[in-house]
TrEMBL record:
Residues 4-100 form the Rieske domain. Its cofactor is [2Fe-2S] cluster. It comes from Roseinatronobacter alkalisoli. Belongs to the bacterial ring-hydroxylating dioxygenase ferredoxin component family. Pfam families: Rieske. SUPFAM superfamilies: ISP domain. Keywords: 2Fe-2S, Iron, Iron-sulfur, Metal-binding. This is MocE family 2Fe-2S type ferredoxin. The keyword 4Fe-4S does not apply. CDD domains: Rieske_RO_ferredoxin. The keyword RNA-binding does not apply.
Length: 102
């Protein structure tokens, strides 16, 4: 699979995320407290709400609709009502850019 240039590293604050749309799909790209980058599906597995509107705390994203949480490093659903994990995607940084492999 090709690597896709998603954004600049500076586009995402520490402990935050942005929405990235590509080829009819929505992704969420996160910047951890350790200054690492991660990528998951951009929609909650419970009711397909955009996670980019949610709250990032430590290594978790909280869905803005029903407060389900996921570990964005692994995609693991951590709190109901979500019970299906998020897909995760490889991320690398290169020359101040964030690239994802989808």
């Amino acid at each position: 699979m090709p690597w896709i240039d998603a954004c600049a590293t500076d586009d995402i604050e520490t402990e935050d995320l942005i929405r990235f749309d590509h080829d009819g799909r929505t992704f969420a790209i996160y910047r951890s407290p350790d200054d690492e980058f991660f990528c998951t599906d951009g929609l909650c597995t419970h009711e397909q709400v955009h996670l980019a509107d949610g709250l990032v705390m430590d290594y978790e994203i909280e869905c803005p609709k029903h407060n389900a949480t996921f570990d964005y490093r692994t995609g693991e659903a951590k709190r109901a009502p979500a019970c299906v994990n998020l897909n995760t995607y490889p991320v690398r940084t290169e020359g101040g850019r964030v690239l994802i492999e989808v």
